[in-house]
Write a structure and sequence with these properties.
It is built from five helices and 13 strands. By secondary structure, it is of the alpha/beta class. The chain has one domain: 4-Layer Sandwich (Nitrilase/N-carbamoyl-D-aminoacid amidohydrolase), CATH 3.60.110.10. The protein binds 2-acetamido-2-deoxy-beta-D-glucopyranose.
């Protein structure tokens, strides 16, 4: 399998976070027929490795996702580790669900999710999606969705896709991307395995929120989004 890694490193305006992330079901070929064979427990061999890397590099590590086996059931699960290697949070994908996990990194606040909500009101500054779009949805929606989420939530959006393998049964689109809250693409990978670096500039984020004060103009007296515990 190919593992795509995306690293968000501390830029001028971001002092404390180094996140590295691997993609959706990265320990397995992508496809439901493979998942039973590649599924692991969490904690298990694969997440142990991720924990070691987080500790070794002293980074927050968003471990893409792996097929997880628990009590005979399979889940598509993302595990996040802190700089001391601790498992901070485990997020199981909910199909078409609106579920999210917040990771306290101090700054920025990171949300992991598979479906975006108006996160800004929850203090979110960076949305991270490990994903594997295919050759139809990729060219049509991959970048569009990221830019859309970035602008409508006024957040940074980072995605990690598997590199493209034309011989795989599931051909991923590739093109891991980082988008700023203005909708501009800051960094974008090609189809091959690579490392992307991008600065997450929280001052710019604050500026944009100032310029277009979506939050302050929101009519919470007319509508609200409710988050339920999974
Ligand atoms: C990609 O996924 C979409 C949505 O599930 C599906 O309609 C399409 O046929 C798939 N395309 C390829 C090339 O597998």
């Amino acid at each position: 399998y190919s593992v795509f890694r995306l690293a968000l490193h501390p830029g001028l305006c971001l002092s404390c976070v180094l996140s590295s992330h691997v993609t959706e079901c990265f320990n397995s070929p992508y496809g439901t027929k493979y998942f039973p064979e590649y599924a692991e427990k969490i904690p298990g061999e694969c997440t142990q490795k991720l924990s070691e890397v987080a500790k070794e590099c002293s980074i927050y590590l968003i471990g893409g996702s792996i097929p997880e086996e628990d009590a005979g059931k399979l889940y598509n699960t993302c595990a996040v580790f802190g700089p001391d290697g601790t498992l901070l949070v485990k997020h199981r994908k909910v199909s078409r669900g609106r579920s999210t996990r917040e990771v306290e990194t101090g700054n920025p606040v990171i949300h992991l999710c598979h479906c975006s909500l108006p996160f800004t009101s929850q203090g979110c500054q960076l949305l991270v999606y490990p994903g594997a779009f295919n050759m139809t949805t990729g060219p049509a929606h991959w970048e569009l969705l990221q830019r859309g989420r970035a602008v409508d939530n006024q957040v940074y959006v980072a995605t990690a896709s598997p590199a493209r393998d034309d011989k795989a049964s599931y051909v991923a689109w590739g093109h891991s991307t980082v988008v700023n809250p203005w909708g501009e693409v800051l960094a974008k990978a090609g189809t091959e395995e690579t490392i992307l670096y991008s600065d997450i500039d929280l001052e710019k984020l604050a500026e944009i929120r100032q310029q277009i004060p979506i939050l302050r103009q929101k009519r919470s007296d007319l509508y609200a989004v409710e988050m339920k515990k999974p």
